[in-house]
């Protein structure tokens, strides 16, 4: 601009305009970058990635099955805020093995209903997400009805054969497809709620030794895929307080390691209760100290410890339905989310954290807990809640490793 103008006055005028423009532009940039507004342009996954971690969500199939009917904001949030996905229901046996295979002891890949796996894989690839978590292979719930009935007639060996055959078929399919599923919950929720035994009332009750059955599921998984991270996943195992299943879990996985069962990780689901209407109770600093102990205990066993299904539900003003929560409750929920996420992701054996959904509009909580809800990061209109900002702050202030 200056070179092209021969006139000295015009030149300096032009210079002063461009200098002014530059100053205004620079000041604007500075103000924006110093303000929260600009910083908020970053997403949760930006911060997680910057710290070598992943932050993920459970994805509901109804919003991927038919993208036209999907709320636009839900899709946008899935694509921008998270860098690891898990399917909320589609990878469960009730979906994958909904019809009885011709030979349940020699399941073929063609016996599997893989549409749900393919759908999430495709969505992840479209959103440039390379990490998917598989949930879950062997679970007492969401098993197909034909199995619930037929397994009652099988002997112990047949149940072992069926489980190994199913695990092998699913892992082989995912490996061959190169689906980006690098973690699998091999066995889910096998410990009884009374915390003193392995669960009964399952389709695999007929096995002669439930622990041996669990061990064998892991051996089958390792044989089918030598690279995938193999996880045992459960709830009420996060804290060491007397009411939890923590002690049983630690003893069980220590035994598995001793027997050289190929177990790589423990998933601690973390469905927690948040503060009451006055903002009191919920997940406190004392809980965080206790929570940390679980990560350390598992690290000593050379196991990853992964928060796999975090949510923080709130008691509402109505005992029978979801009801309303207070502003003070939401603010305190944000702080508690921050505490949970920063505690978990500060631990070296905790590479990522998954939320069990992100939008209160689509949460599983109100239908499962009367008078509770509002447990996630976005409200029913997909607007950010203090919970979102709590997680954002936790990720933003993680120490670089
Ligand atoms: O698919 C059927 C549909 O055909 C039918 O019309 C409809 C009628 O109710 O039910 C649909 O199935 C529901 C399914 O979710 C899929 O939407 C089941 O009723 C419902 O019970 C099931 O709930 C799931 C629950 O696991 C089952 O135990 C929740 O969405 C899911 O969030 C929840 O996830 C579990 C994890 O897998 C393991 N850890 C605990 C976590 C929360 O319970």
Taking the sheet with the most strands, its summary is: 8 strands, parallel, barrel
Return Rg in Å. Answer: 25 Å
Bound molecules: ligand G3I
Please indicate the percent range of residues in DSSP E strands (runs of 2 or more).
5-15%
Helix content percent band: 40-55%
By DSSP, the count of extended strands is: 11
Shape: globular
Compute the average pLDDT. Answer: 90
In terms of per-residue confidence, which ranges show pLDDT below 50 for 5 or more consecutive residues? 1-39
Query: If helices are DSSP runs of H or I spanning 4 or more residues, what is the number of helices?
Result: 15
What attributes does this structure have?
single chain; alpha/beta; 15 helices; 43% helix; globular; disordered N terminus; binds ligand G3I
Describe this structure in words.
It is a single chain. The chain has an eight-stranded parallel barrel, surrounded by six helices. It is globular and about 55 Å long. The chain has helices spanning 8-34, 36-39, 44-50, 62-65, 72-81, 93-96, 115-126, 145-150, 156-177, 210-224, 246-258, 285-300, 327-345, 365-368, 386-396; strands spanning 54-59, 84-87, 132-134, 138-139, 181-188, 229-234, 265-268, 271-273, 304-315, 352-355, 372-373. Mean pLDDT is 90; it is low at 1-39. It has 401 residues and is an alpha/beta fold. The chain is 43% helix and 13% strand. It binds ligand G3I. Ligand G3I binds next to loops. Ligand G3I is lined by residues 88-89, 141-142, 235, 269, 309, 364.
């Amino acid at each position: 601009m200056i070179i092209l103008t021969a006139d000295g006055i015009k030149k300096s005028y032009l210079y002063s305009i461009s200098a002014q423009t530059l100053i205004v532009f620079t000041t604007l940039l500075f103000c924006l970058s110093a303000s929260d507004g600009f910083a908020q342009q970053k997403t949760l996954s930006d911060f997680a990635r910057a710290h070598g971690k992943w932050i993920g969500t459970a994805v509901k199939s109804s919003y991927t099955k038919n993208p036209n009917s999907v709320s636009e904001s839900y899709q946008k949030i899935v694509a921008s805020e998270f860098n690891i996905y898990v399917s909320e229901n589609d990878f469960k046996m009730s979906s994958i093995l909904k019809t009885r295979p011709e030979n349940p002891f020699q399941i073929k890949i063609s016996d599997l209903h893989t549409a749900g796996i393919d759908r999430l894989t495709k969505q992840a690839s479209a959103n440039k997400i390379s990490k998917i978590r598989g949930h879950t292979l062997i679970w007492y719930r969401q098993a197909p009805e034909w199995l619930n009935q037929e397994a009652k007639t099988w002997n112990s060996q047949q149940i072992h054969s069926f489980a190994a055959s199913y695990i092998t078929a699913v892992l082989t399919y995912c490996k061959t497809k190169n689906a980006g599923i690098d973690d699998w919950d091999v066995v889910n929720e096998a410990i009884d709620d009374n915390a003193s035994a392995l669960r009964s009332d399952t389709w695999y009750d007929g096995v002669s030794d439930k622990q041996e059955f669990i061990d064998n599921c892991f051996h089958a998984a390792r044989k089918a895929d030598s690279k995938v991270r193999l996880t045992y996943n459960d709830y009420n195992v996060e804290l060491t307080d007397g009411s939890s299943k923590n002690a049983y879990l630690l003893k069980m996985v220590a035994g598995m390691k001793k027997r050289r069962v190929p177990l790589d990780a423990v998933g601690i689901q973390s469905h927690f209760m948040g503060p009451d209407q006055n903002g009191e109770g919920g997940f406190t600093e004392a809980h965080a100290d206790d929570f940390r102990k679980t990560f350390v205990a598992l690290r000593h066993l050379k196991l990853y410890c992964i928060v796999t299904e975090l949510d923080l539900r709130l008691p509402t003003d109505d005992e029978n339905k979801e009801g309303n929560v207070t502003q003070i409750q939401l603010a305190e929920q944000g702080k508690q989310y921050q505490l949970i996420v920063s505690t978990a992701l500060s631990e070296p054996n905790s590479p990522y954290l998954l939320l069990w959904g992100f939008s209160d509009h689509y949460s599983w909580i109100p239908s499962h807990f009367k008078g509770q809800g509002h447990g996630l990061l976005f409200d029913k209109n997909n607007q950010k809640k203090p919970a979102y900002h709590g997680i954002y702050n936790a990720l933003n202030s993680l120490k670089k490793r």
